[in-house]
Amino acid sequence: MSPSTPFSALTIAGSDSGGGAGIQADLKAFAAHRVHGLSAIAALTAQNTRGVTAVHVPPLDFLQAQIDACFDDFDIHAVKLGMLANAEVIHLVAGILEQRRPPQVVLDPVMIATSGARLLQDSALQALRERLLPLATLITPNTPEAELLLGRRINNAADADDAADALIGMGASAVLLKGGHLFEGNRVIDRYFDGVTREEFSHARLPVDAHGTGCTLASSIAAQLCCGLSMPNACEAAIDYIARGLQGGYRPGHSEVMVLDHF
Ligand code: PLP
C-alpha cells in the first residue's frame, strides 16, 4: 500500500433509495472523511423521506460474494454494520467476521426507522445479542434499541449508565449509548463506556426531524478509526460531524424530513 492510499472501510447494511440513510449515507460519510468506502448490501429498501414501502433481502450467497470480494482485495480497517434485516443475515455476517477478523467492527443495531418501519425482525434479536455483540469493538444503540437488547426500560440517567455497563457485560468492547430519546434538559447526552473509560458527550438538541443520523454517526466513527483516532476520540469527532451536518442539512423530498449535509 502506498503512503497516500487510505485504509478502506466496509459498510454491510441496507440501501435507502431516498439517499438519506443506510449504505448511501455511509458512503457519503466515508468519502467526506477521505476513507475509501466499500459496501455489501444486506437489504434493499424502497424508501423516501416519507417512509419505507418495501424491503428486499438478497440471497445469502450473493451477500457473501459481496463481502468476500471486498475482503479479498482491500485492506479493511473498519467494518460498519447497519440494517441486517433478519437472523439468517446476522449469522452469515457473524461467521464471516469471525473468520476475517477486521480490526474494528462498529455495530449500529438498526431495528426500527424513525418513520416507524421495522428494519429487523423480532426473531433476530437473539442472534444480534449472541453473535454480533461479542464481535463489536463498538455498539451504537439509541435508547429504544438498548431497551430491546437488554429487555428493560431506560427512563433516566442512572438507567442509561446501567445499560451501558450491561451492554459491555454482554460482550461488546465499547458502547456509545445515544441519548436523543431521553430527556435530560435541553441537551442530548451520549454516553461512552468501554469497561475502563467512561465519557459523556453533551450537545444541543436541534429542533429538526432528521433522517439517517444514526447510520451516519456509526459510519463516521468507522472512518475516524481508519484515520487513527482512539475509540472515544472517534466517537466525539463523529458526534461533532453530525452536528455540523445537521446545521447544513436540507429537505430533499416533499416532507419535513431533513437529511445531513456531508462535507
Ligand atoms: N433505512 C435504512 C436502510 C437504514 O439503515 C436506516 C438506519 O437506521 C434507516 C432507514 C433509518 O434511518 P432513520 O431512522 O434515521 O430515519
Automatic annotation (TrEMBL):
Name of this protein: hydroxymethylpyrimidine kinase
Pfam families to which the protein is assigned, alphabetical: Phos_pyr_kin (PF08543)
Residue intervals of the Pyridoxamine kinase/Phosphomethylpyrimidine kinase domain: 16-256
Pathway assignment: Cofactor biosynthesis; thiamine diphosphate biosynthesis
GO molecular function: ATP binding; hydroxymethylpyrimidine kinase activity; phosphomethylpyrimidine kinase activity
SUPFAM superfamilies found in the cross-reference section: Ribokinase-like
Keyword Hydrolase (UniProt): no
Taxonomic source organism: Stenotrophomonas pictorum JCM 9942
Top-rank lineage group of the source organism: Bacteria
